[in-house]
């Protein structure tokens, strides 16, 4: 992550990226991996952001995505408008009580129309941002 940020910052400033410690030049072509250090770091403990339990870094991502009972999840009826999101261990209780599967077709059409309008506004915003970013040079003060 830090490596990418260094390269991106230097690119924006139109400068050569340098190491913040030793000031040596850094580039994709000069970069090499230290597998021994990567392996050692993967065994260091890291804290789950949801349940605060400690895991080796190599197992943390899997725990947070698949195993953690406190990870944030969404209702399976989100696609038809259910806004609920909460810890995974509460999901089955919510889905058994969720009112969205019992809504009428007209109610669902209203919800879907509202979702379409929101998505349309988001797309207009993204398109304007992409349009601005497509300029050859952007000046700032």
Automatic annotation (TrEMBL):
A zinc finger (TRAF-type) spans 44-82. GO terms for molecular function: zinc ion binding. Coiled coil: none annotated. InterPro entries: ZFTRAF1 (IPR039338), Znf_RING/FYVE/PHD (IPR013083), Znf_TRAF (IPR001293). The gene is Cyhr1. GO terms for cellular component: nucleus. Keywords: Metal-binding, Zinc, Zinc-finger. SUPFAM superfamilies: TRAF domain-like. This is CYHR1 protein. Residues 44-82 form the TRAF-type domain. It comes from Rhagologus leucostigma.
């Amino acid at each position: 992550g830090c490596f990418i940020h260094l390269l991106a910052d230097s690119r924006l400033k139109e400068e050569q990226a340098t190491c913040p410690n030793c000031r040596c030049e850094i580039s994709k072509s000069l970069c090499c991996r230290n597998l021994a250090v990567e392996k050692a770091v993967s065994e260091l403990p890291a804290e789950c952001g949801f349940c605060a339990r400690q895991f080796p870094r190599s197992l943390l991502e899997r725990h947070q995505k698949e195993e953690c009972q406190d990870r944030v999840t969404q209702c399976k009826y989100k696609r038809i408008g259910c806004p609920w999101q909460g810890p995974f261990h509460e999901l089955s209780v919510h889905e058994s009580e969720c009112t969205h599967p019992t809504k009428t077709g007209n109610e669902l059409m209203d919800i879907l129309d509202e979702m379409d309008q929101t998505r349309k506004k988001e797309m207009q915003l993204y398109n304007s941002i992409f349009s601005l970013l497509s300029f050859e040079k952007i000046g700032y003060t």
